[in-house]
Specification:
- The complex is a heterodimer of chains A (309) and B (439).
- With 309 residues, chain A is an all-alpha fold.
- Chain A is built from 12 helices and no strands.
- Chain B is 70% helix and 2% strand.
- In chain B, α18 packs across α19.
- The relative contact order of chain B is 0.11.
- Classes of the chains: A mainly alpha (309), B mainly alpha (439).
């Protein structure tokens, strides 16, 4: 899968406007056509695509990810902290949206037809329909421009001298609040709908009626019997949402200029930085796929009726 | 919003069901009504007043589409969504009409009137006024002399010579020139009004960073955004229909291959993938030269790219229903009658998958609008000067300090449209699916 993906990706990158030599040509007006041809040969750009892919892939396998042409640093050095930043952002927003959405979904499932249910339902629809980048812009307008409470963008305050761990954490947290909110709303919408339907499905089960008939308290029935069964379909949805969260992270990171891998993918494609674009794209997509796999396995752990034999 | 109690729902629904069944299953019907009547009319008086005629009208079966329609209209938010969508569609279709009526042009720039606030009037620069007036004077010399003498006779602009009369009149700001033009006689008044029209424009939503009117750009953006959304949803539904039906009908290795591809595409994070595809330079693919010669290549490209990545849900849905349809008796019957595979799929299976597909198309339109907006926002989708809601937000981050409305309005429209399409889809789903338990 990863090999096919990387080959396709390589092919697509060759179709993008401009190649490394074009960049050199524009920066150096004295260059002659003979030089251009020589440079193309040097970089191996005159060879057919599959050969270039082979060369590129073999260097990757040896652990050499190449250099970034715009940042002038090895790609591996660039990628590490970015991946970590994105990981924090997406995990935090996933957690945040689950913390908000699951109680909302459950309570609206327990009280169908009430005002609370309608409000939660409306929030869910609204959340799904809000473009996350626009929400980000709105949040910036409200909280940074008008109120001036939170920074409009960035990852951390530069020039923070030797901060204590707590100060460091607070500083990073300050920059994370708005991106997390704007990234979470769509997820909250999805999760509210799913947890509501999963919970109302679970409440209709026969064993719930049995538990009630036994005279168990309402709390025990809901949390011990119904909720644990409602969790199973929820895990699937959460697993599938990794890719959505990462998709959203690209947009959010761009809006808030948060130094994550999504912004790296976007920036490197815009500025024609092949090595970075390809590696960061492939690694981030692979990460999402691995997350999906892990969630699939967890699914089997959570539900003993499913086995992978 | 009116809150409806769950009991009233069940009554209506079981009544509808009983009337639907009445023609083909008498015993079932009797059982149903006997179950319903005590719940619905516990009051014996009401039961007694139910005459034979009323009972008959209750028991005659409604056609399927009427039941669906009735149920759809019960879903208030869906109806509201439908109304909003119709309004937007009307705006999109009548974009040219609106442009003509307001005299605004979505691409006309006016650098002297950038970032105007909503509800303001912009005045053209002196240079533009003089140049345009000169062109007009050369085009209509006879009318010009007539107007000039009239202006001087009526002494509209004190102490002006014949030659300068029109120039001076045109250089006045809107508030001053309007009453003066109104004093002119018929033909010359119309001519002057026509000439002065472009010099001073009223901007309901203000102007953007190069002085274009925001309202009319939003109107044309509606056309582009909703157009792209609908096209993508339809084309991808068609792709999904084909792939899903082939996979579901033939099964075997073809099915597993197609479904592997579907699953693989579904698990990809869409936005980065779309960014990579959108960044492709189409001119490097020689066989596409034919398509991209006209100016709307970015729209065409957008539709193709979004279609490539949005057929999967429909394909899975169609495959699922075709798998179950395959085992039904009427398919077996048409097979025994010697129908071709294509006939079975198209004539007998497609009508059965249309209803759930309709729902997924509606939801797909909303999603496509969101993705188009996201890509255009990143500067990779619809290319300016063609306006779309997404690319109007493109430089919202810089613009919001100057005029907040520029950053808020396009997003608000996206939100409204997508919410409406989602509610519409939800309503359709509830209406079509007979098993759907109403909230």
């Amino acid at each position: 899968m990863v090999v096919i993906l990387s080959y396709l990706c390589f092919g697509l990158m060759t179709l993008m406007p401009g190649d490394p030599v074009d960049l050199l040509v524009t920066s150096n007006p004295k260059i002659t056509p003979a030089d251009v041809a020589r440079l193309r040969e040097l970089y191996g750009l005159d060879q057919p695509m599959y050969k270039r892919y082979y060369n590129w892939a073999s260097t990757i396998v040896q652990g050499d990810l190449g250099y970034s042409r715009t940042y002038r640093v090895p790609v591996s050095e660039l990628l590490g902290p970015r991946l970590l930043n994105t990981f924090w952002l997406s995990m935090a927003s996933l957690l945040f949206s689950l913390l908000i959405a699951i109680p909302l979904g459950i309570f609206s499932a327990l009280k169908p037809g009430t005002k609370f249910d309608y409000a939660a339902n409306f929030l869910a629809f609204g959340g799904i329909a809000t473009p996350s980048f626009w929400l980000g812009i709105l949040l910036i307008i409200i909280f940074s421009v008008v109120l001036g409470w939170l920074p409009a963008g960035g990852t951390e305050t530069t020039g923070l001298e030797d901060p204590s761990f707590l100060a460091f954490l607070l500083d990073r947290g300050k920059y994370l609040i708005l991106p997390i909110i704007s990234l979470s709303l769509q997820q909250i919408g999805q999760f509210v709908r799913f947890s509501r339907s999963a919970m109302s499905e679970a409440m209709r089960n026969d064993f719930v009626r049995t538990a009630r008939a036994k005279g168990l308290s309402n709390q025990t029935v809901i949390w011990k019997h119904a909720f644990r069964n409602a969790l199973i379909p929820l895990i699937t949805v959460v697993a599938l949402s990794f890719s959505t969260v990462f998709s959203g992270a690209v947009l959010t990171e761009t809006v808030f200029s948060y130094q994550g891998v999504g912004k790296l993918v976007y920036d490197s494609i815009i500025s024609n930085d092949y090595n970075v674009a390809m590696i960061s794209f492939i690694i981030s997509v692979t990460m999402v796929l691995v997350m999906n796999l892990v969630a699939d396995i967890l699914y089997g752990v959570a539900d003993p009726r499913i086995s992978y034999k | 919003m009116e809150l409806q109690t769950p009991e009233s729902h069940t009554n209506k629904r079981s009544l509808a069901r009983s009337t639907q069944n009445s023609s083909d299953n008498q015993s079932d019907n009797l059982m149903e009504t006997s179950r319903v009547t005590p719940e619905a009319n516990t009051d014996p008086e009401v039961q007694a007043t139910l005459s034979d005629k009323d009972r008959k009208s209750l028991e005659t079966s409604l056609p399927m589409w009427k039941i669906v329609l009735n149920q759809f209209f019960e879903h208030r938010m869906a109806v509201a969504g439908l109304v909003v969508i119709c309004a937007f569609l009307a705006v999109a279709m009548g974009a040219d009409l609106i442009a003509w009526a307001t005299g605004l042009n979505p691409n006309k720039q006016n650098v002297s009137a950038r970032y105007l606030l909503p509800m303001t009037r912009s005045e053209a620069s002196t240079d533009t006024r003089e140049a345009t007036t000169e062109v007009w004077l050369e085009a209509h010399p006879e009318l010009a002399t007539k107007v000039q003498t009239e202006i001087v006779e009526k002494n509209l602009i004190p102490g002006v010579s014949n030659q300068d009369a029109i120039y001076e009149l045109m250089l006045l700001e809107y508030a001053q020139s309007k009453p003066k033009i109104a004093l002119l006689s018929g033909e010359s008044q119309a001519a002057m009004k026509d000439l002065a029209k472009d010099f001073s424009t009223y901007h309901v939503f203000g102007t953007d960073e190069v002085g274009r009117d925001v309202l009319i750009r939003l109107v044309y953006g509606t056309r582009v955004s909703i157009g792209v959304g609908i096209m993508v949803a339809l084309v991808s539904a068609l792709m999904g229909l084909m792939i899903g039906s082939v996979a579901g009908f033939y099964g075997g290795w073809l099915d597993s291959l197609l479904m592997r591809i579907t699953d693989a595409l579904l698990s990809l994070p869409l936005v980065p993938v779309l960014i990579v595809f959108a960044a492709i330079d189409l001119t490097k693919l020689p066989f596409l030269d034919l398509f991209i010669s006209n100016g709307n290549e970015s729209i065409f490209k957008m539709v193709v790219i979004l279609c490539l990545f949005s057929w999967m849900t429909v394909a899975r849905l169609v495959r699922g229903s075709i798998l179950s349809l395959r085992e039904r008796e009427f398919i077996l019957a048409s097979k025994t009658l010697g129908a071709k595979d294509s006939t079975i799929i198209v004539r007998h299976m497609f009508p059965n998958v249309i209803a759930p597909m309709l729902v997924s198309i509606t939801l797909g339109i909303g999603n496509s609008i969101l993705f188009e907006a996201a890509l255009s926002f990143l500067g990779l989708g619809i290319m300016p000067p063609t306006p779309s809601w997404g690319n109007m937000l493109n430089n919202a981050q810089e613009v919001m300090y100057k005029n907040v409305w520029l950053a808020v309005l396009p997003g608000l429209l996206i939100f409204l449209t997508v919410v409406s399409f989602n509610f519409l889809g939800d309503g359709l789903q509830d209406a079509i699916d007979p098993k759907a338990v109403r909230r």
